[in-house]
Amino acid sequence: MDLADYKCSIEKLHRRLNIPESYAKDYALPLHIEEQDLVKIGFDIYNRPQFMFSRVVSQWVEMRESARQDKIDLRIVSAFRSPEYQASIVRRKLDKGLKLEEILRVSAAPGYSEHHTGCALDLTTTGVEALSENFDQTKAFTWLQHNGEQYGFKLSYPRNLKSKIAYEPWHWACLPTATQ
Questions:
Q1: Number of folded domains that form the chain
Q2: Of 51, 79, 84, 105, which residue is the least packed, with the fewest Cβ within 10 Å?
Q3: Residue 80 · residue 50 · CB < 8 Å
Q4: CATH number at residue 90
């Protein structure tokens, strides 16, 4: 699918979900193209298969192994998500009665989630509820803050971000290294 077709499909998803045309500007988020070159990286905490962009898998594996050596358990909550899957998340929350504005503070609109790139991971660790701000009180979060960058991972949504996206201490993304 070329870029024009991709943008058109994202616009259709947004219309179906009543996401305003000004979303990208309002939330200060770039459009993320859906990655096709994906590799299975195992299972998440719910035993669902998870995938990442092939060029970043080694960064994740190296980071997870280094954390293990430091007695830190990094567990995947979510990795790659297609725009359609992202739309289903928004729909489920709307069906539960949540307001769209509330949903878009914690879930990027389809087409604007870093998860589409295959380079983003929602992480947790033993003893903390998944997707909870309390993750920032764990040794795993502290370890990520001190070591994540070494593997190309960064916290995407820190506190006081200019975007309207809420603080997400569990959401870490990386870029492929130049050598890959």
A1: 1
A2: 84
A3: yes
A4: 3.30.1380.10
